[in-house]
Specification:
By secondary structure, the protein is α/β, with parallel strands linked by helices. It folds into two domains: about 10-125, 3-Layer(aba) Sandwich (Rossmann fold); about 135-235. The chain is about 60% helix and about 10% strand. The chain has helices at about 15-30, 40-50, 65-75, 95-100, 115-125, 140-145, 150-175, 175-195, 195-210, 215-235; strands at about 10, 30-35, 55, 85-90, 105-110. The chain has a five-stranded parallel beta sheet, with helices on both faces. Helix 9 runs antiparallel to helix 10 (about 215-235). The relative contact order is 0.12.
C-alpha cells in the first residue's frame, strides 16, 4: 500500500482481552490503533481526531456503536465525520447486521474475531498492509478468465499500463461522475480478466455510491478505490 504513514484506526471495544488482541493484530498489519473502551470515549476521540477507519462494537457501554457513528455523521465539525466504519457484533441475527449497514457501516464483523477475518476485512477496505500479491491479485481467477498463463501475463502488462493512466487522471475523473462511472465499468471488466478481485470490488462499490446522494459513503468508497488502485499496481510490478 502506498502510504507515508500507517493508517490510524479507532478501535472501540469494551472487553479488555478482545481490545488488546485486536489492537495488537492491527499493529501487526501495519496500522496505528487507538483503543478505547466505551462509546463516549470513541465519540470524543473521533470528533477531535481524523482517523482513517473506525472499528466500533455494536454493544459499547454509554453509546452503542451505531449511536457513535450517527453522532459523527451529523456533526459537521467532527474530524472523522466522513471516515469509513466497520461494526463488530456477537449477534448472528441478519436483521441486526442489516440495521448496522443501514446505519452506515461498510462491513459487519462477527465476534469472536480471528486475525485472518480482521486481515481479510481490512484488505477488502484497503487499509491493511499488503504483504503478498495474492491479497490483491487472484491467479486462479485470472487463469480461469484468460485461458492460460501466457495470455494472463500479457493481459496484466496491458492492465498495468491502464492503471498507470488511471492514477495520472484520477483527480480529474473524480470531478466528473458520468465519465468516472463509464471508466469504472470498463475497469471492472479488465479486473475480471486479470484476477484483480480486490480492485474489482472497490470499483463496484464506488460505482454504486456514485448513484447515491450519500457524501460520506461516496468519499469512503473513493478513498478505498484509490488505495486498492495503488496496491494493485504495486502487485503487478514493473
Amino acid at each position: 500500500m502506498n502510504r507515508t504513514a500507517p493508517p490510524r484506526i479507532l478501535l472501540a471495544e469494551d472487553d479488555p482481552v478482545s481490545r488488546a488482541f485486536l489492537a495488537e493484530a492491527l499493529r501487526q498489519f501495519g496500522c496505528e490503533p487507538h483503543a478505547v473502551e466505551d462509546g463516549e470515549a470513541a465519540l470524543r476521540a473521533a470528533t477531535a481526531r481524523r482517523f482513517d477507519l473506525l472499528i466500533l462494537d455494536r454493544s459499547l457501554p454509554g453509546l452503542r456503536g451505531d449511536q457513535v457513528l450517527h453522532a459523527l455523521r451529523t456533526d459537521e465539525k467532527a474530524a472523522s465525520r466522513a471516515t469509513g466504519a466497520i461494526a463488530t457484533t456477537a449477534a448472528p441475527d441478519p436483521e441486526i447486521h442489516a440495521s448496522l449497514r443501514a446505519a452506515g457501516f461498510a462491513r459487519v464483523m462477527m465476534k469472536p474475531l480471528s486475525t485472518e477475518t480482521l486481515r481479510q476485512t481490512l484488505n477488502e477496505c484497503g487499509f491493511a498492509h499488503v504483504d503478498a500479491d495474492e491479497a490483491v491479485l487472484d491467479d486462479t481467477a485470472g487463469l480461469a478468465a484468460s485461458g492460460n498463463a501466457e495470455i494472463l501475463s500479457a493481459l496484466r502488462g496491458l492492465f498495468a499500463a491502464e492503471l498507470d493512466a488511471l492514477i495520472r487522471e484520477f483527480e480529474a475523473l473524480h470531478d466528473d461522475r458520468l465519465v468516472l462511472s463509464e471508466r469504472l465499468h470498463r475497469l471492472r471488466a479488465a479486473c475480471g480478466f486479470c484476477g484483480a478481485v480486490a480492485l474489482q470490488t472497490a470499483a463496484a462499490e464506488w460505482s454504486d455510491a456514485l448513484h447515491t446522494h450519500d457524501a460520506a459513503r461516496l468519499a469512503e468508497c473513493g478513498a478505498r478505490f484509490k488505495q486498492m488502485l495503488a496496491a494493485t499496481r504495486q502487485a503487478l510490478g514493473n
